[in-house]
Amino acid sequence: MIDTKITLPESEIPTHFYNIVPDLPTPLPPPLHPGTREPIGPEMLAPIFPMGLIAQEVSQSPAVEIPDEVRQLYRLYRPSPVFRARAFEAVVDTPAHIYYKSEHVSPVGSHKLNTALVQAYANKQEGVKRLATETGAGQWGSALACACRLMGLECMVYMVKVSYEQKPYRRIMMKSYGADVVASPSTLTEAGRRVLAESPDSPGSLGIAISEAIEDAAKRDDTKYALGSVLNHVLLHQTIIGQEAKKQMELAGEYPDLVVGCHGGGSNFAGLAFPFLRDKLKGRRKGLRAIAVEPSACPSLTAGRREYDFGDTAGTTPLMMMHTLGHGFIPAPVHAGGLRYHGSAPLVSHLLAEGLIEAEAYAQGEVFESALMFARSEGTIPAPESAHAIHSVVQHALKARASNERTVILFNLSGHGIFDLSAYDAFLSGKMAMMA
Ligand SMILES: *Cc1c(COP(=O)(O)O)cnc(C)c1O
After folding, report:
1. Beta pairing partners, 364
2. Which long-range contacts (CB under 8 A, 24 or more apart) does 168-176 make?
3. Quick one: pLDDT at residue 138?
4. Closest ligand 1 atom, residue 269 Cα
5. 424: pLDDT confidence band, cut at 50, 70 and 90?
6. Which atom of ligand 1 is nearest to the CA of 228?
7. N or C end of the chain: which has fewer CB within 10 A?
8. CA distances from 434 to 35, 54, 368, 430 (A)
9. Which residues pair with 42 in a beta bridge?
10. Residue 270 CA, closest ligand 1 atom number
11. Which atom of ligand 1 is nearest to the CA of 271?
12. Which residues, in sequence order, are bridge partners of residue 290?
């Protein structure tokens, strides 16, 4: 019998990030300047991102080396284990073999630290002293706050005001790492002051917080901006997840038929799936299915159109070719805050358009039912975001039972739900909008 927990030694932490771009069957449409609609050059990004990350954003090399200092810090929690979810298989009552990659074991409880560490490092290399960012519920903000502290940078987080007030624990976490956290809209920026002048009681939005963080970075010489998903370089950093998982599946003696990840901006899905998709693109695993799972409240992949759109609500970023619901789309306030993004990563959108990956959408009520089934069998309370992947896995495991197939499924447990217990409370006490 193979182990329940499949671990790798620290020496197996990947040395390179896997870049899927040169393996794509057709070229990725470039980001465009919103005024001229011409492809943007590095000079448009240079005021807010360091050159090292801009180079990764447009890199055509198949592999990008991971700096030693970053690999040293990865040792705090990597390689992360893969588990065979035997107890979960038993409650789902399926012949499928279900495995999960456990990104919730990072110090901040999600995969986001994987990219935060690289971004903090790349900025430090270029003499940047301080990073500014936005955060909704606080997952990205706490990852960047942790990474900045470990790399010796200052961190400024604009946190959407309604979350700042209603979700104190992530805010306290960021402050524990020494970050400055303000409720957005704030009086610190023009963008914030403009909103406050019009509506002093504004609850804030991710779009406003992004505008504040970008303005902060653009105005100060010592400061750059950092983004936790969507961009090519962020997805690139997350590919350490799938590279490790491939070795772990090899140790288990199996290769997945299905690779599943939840989808907000696309980074944890891409991180797990891209190294496996490489086998499919090279013709070695033609039957591999990769599935991105989103909430039906924000169905950018399953119901959005693929077109050029802004990355932020305020319309200040370059235009990106992606599946989008429109940058003005405001999703229902579902508990999986990390999945409430109107667009999707251009790379994930491109693969979907090419028919190389699939997408599914589920309502939060059914998602939480599967989340509890998982928590009560495997012990870990999943993040509401990750629970979308779990619910998809249940659907495919039930199909495997119906057809009596020994399907091998691997999914990404992108984070734990210990900071999302109010969502579980709403579900358990019958107060959740189940069909949202
Ligand atoms: C932020 C977040 C997500 C969604 O972002 P992606 O870029 O799509 O991965 C998913 N799960 C968790 C735990 C998150 O914190």
Report:
1. none
2. 169/138, 169/419, 170/135, 170/137, 170/138, 170/139, 170/141, 170/142, 170/419, 171/138, 173/108, 173/138, 173/142, 173/145, 173/419, 174/135, 174/138, 174/141, 174/142, 174/145
3. 94
4. 9
5. very high
6. 7
7. N
8. 42, 41, 9, 9
9. none
10. 9
11. 9
12. 259
Nearest-CA residue for atom 5 of ligand 1? 264
Residue labelled with tokens 């235009």 = 319
- Give the total residue count for the chain: 436
Residues within a 6 A CB radius of ligand 1:
110, 112, 139, 229, 262-269, 338-339, 383, 385-386, 414-415
Q: Place 382 in a pLDDT band, splitting at 50, 70 and 90.
A: very high
Residue extents of the structural domains in the chain? 68-109+233-428
Please give the number of the atom of ligand 1 that sits closest to the Cα of 267: 7
Taking CA atoms only, the protein residue closest to ligand 1 atom 14 is 338
Q: CATH for 68-109+233-428, among 1.25.40.10, 3.40.50.1100, 3.30.565.10, 3.40.50.1820?
A: 3.40.50.1100
Cα(154)–Cα(208) distance, rounded to whole angstroms?
Answer: 22
Distance 395 CA to ligand 1 centre (A): 21
C-alpha of residue 368 to centroid of ligand 1, in Å: 16
Amino acid at site 317:
T
CA 318 to each of CA 165, 315, 417: distance values in angstroms, whole numbers, following the listed order: 31, 8, 33
pLDDT in tens, 46-65: 999 999 999 999 999 999 99
Instruction: Evaluate the omega torsion of the peptide bond into residue 185 and state whether it is cis, within 30 degrees of 0.
Output: yes
Tokens for 399? 């199909």
Ligand 1: centre distance to CA 313 (Å): 19
Distance CA 21, CA 33 (A): 21
Site to probe by mutation for ligand 1, drawn from 105, 144, 229, 235 as the one with most ligand atoms within 8 Å of Cβ, is 229
Report in angstroms the alpha-carbon separations of 133 from 86, 102, 211, 359: 40, 26, 10, 29
Q: Which residues partner with 64 through β-bridges?
A: 17
What is d(CA 164, CA 181) in angstroms, rounded to the nearest whole number? 9
Q: Which two tokens stand for residue 107?
A: 């110090």
| pLDDT at site 95 | 98
| Probe target for ligand 1 pocket from 100, 414, 416, 418, with the most ligand atoms within 8 Å of CB | 414
